[in-house]
Amino acid sequence: MATKKVMVPWMLLLCLIMVFGAFGAQAAGDNKPVRAFFVFGDSLVDAGNNNFLVTAARADTPPYGIDYPTQQPTGRFSNGLNIADIISEKIGSEPALPCLHPLLHGNRLLIGANFASAGVGILNDTGIQFVEIIRMYDQLDFFRKYQRELIAHVGADKAKEIVNGALFLVVVGGNDFVNNYFLVPHSARSNQFSLHDYVPFLISQFKPILTTLYDLGARRILVTGNGPLGCPPAELAARSKNGECATELQQAANMFNPQLSQMLKELNTNYKRDIFVGVNMDILQDDFITDPKKYDRNQYVFWDQYHLTEKANRIVVDKMMSASADFIFPMNLSTIMVMDAKV
Ligand SMILES: *[C@@H]1O[C@H](CO)[C@@H](O)[C@H](O)[C@H]1NC(C)=O
Ligand SMILES: *[C@@H]1O[C@H](CO)[C@@H](O)[C@H](O)[C@H]1NC(C)=O
């Protein structure tokens, strides 16, 4: 399994433990501990898990991280913070540590954890070209392992309370198109399915992942749709003739998003509760994508060939906080925070 290849510079680790060891007591010592936050998905929210793996999907060299507080690459696919980090900020918390991080123990567990791994998709066969990545089912296994450790640390009742009261974020699905179906002209999946049939197949495979999260105790889960898949610089370079966003990838996202919304609504109906909150990533499309070829990281959407700048990530999260039901349904993140604080 993935953890076998973890390499730790032990001296550095010892120093870090000495510096940061006391941290986390803060969360535990306060009367009102911060809400735990759990993150699942792909490179849009990976906080460094892939640094611990033998994989081609990595962001551990400069200039990644150039605007991160440490100005060092951390494994995040951005110049600075990603969407998950900025949501942590809104909760009033530290970014959740990657599940493979050696410091994720003790009171640090109370903040939550980030299980995301760049390159993964809904399907197990997405991202095979990256070799070692933590696929969605493995992310769920790591969450089970996390829960066992949390129970050992705070007891079963408290652990359940922490997980039931937590906020969850799931960002996945783009790679099932970009790094699977459309990766090469005659991919196995595109030989097997028309796009029209592939999208419902993906949704049908996504559903058990989400219901497993529910079974494991998640009660408030943000699920993002696909952003404008045809507009990142990599796709413009490969598929666009006149700088317009690549048609078939745009079409894929336009088919996927409403079917995802429908599935989330059905799940909420089944559970008789608004467990799932759908986020429409078209938030980015209209007012934002201007000229991705220019790489001014304070003015433009894309930081690298696929991933957003911190600035763009902040705009996404600000919209999650305040947008109307057209973009985030059944309610926005600031409403969720108010509602859940009363429970
Ligand atoms: C994906 O892999 C997991 C095991 O790692 C398995 O339980 C699951 O059924 C697989 N999904 C599909 C659709 O094959
Ligand atoms: C979303 O959030 C804002 C607060 O930022 C609130 O005023 C608004 O009513 C909320 N809900 C909707 C559906 O717009």
Strand order of the largest sheet: 2-1-3-4-5-6
Secondary-structure element order, N to C: HHEHEHHEHHHEHHEHHEH
Tell me the strand percentage band.
5-15%
Specify the overall morphology: globular
* Number of beta-strand segments: 6
Query: Which CATH architecture would you pick?
Result: 3-Layer(aba) Sandwich
Tell me the Rg in angstroms. 19 Å
Sheet having the most strands: 6 strands, mixed
Q: What's the assembly state of these chains?
A: single chain
Q: List the uncertain runs.
A: 1-30, 290-295
CATH topology, anyone?
Rossmann fold
Number of helices: 13
CATH 4th-level superfamily = SGNH hydrolase
Overall pLDDT score: 85
Short description:
The chain has helices at 10-20, 25-29, 83-91, 136-154, 156-164, 174-181, 188-192, 195-215, 233-239, 247-271, 285-288, 310-322, 333-342, and strands at residues 37-41, 112-114, 167-171, 221-224, 276-279, 328-329. With 343 residues, the protein is of the alpha/beta class. InterPro entries: GDSL, GDSL_Est/Lipase, Lipase_GDSL_AS, SGNH_hydro_sf, SGNH_plant_lipase-like.
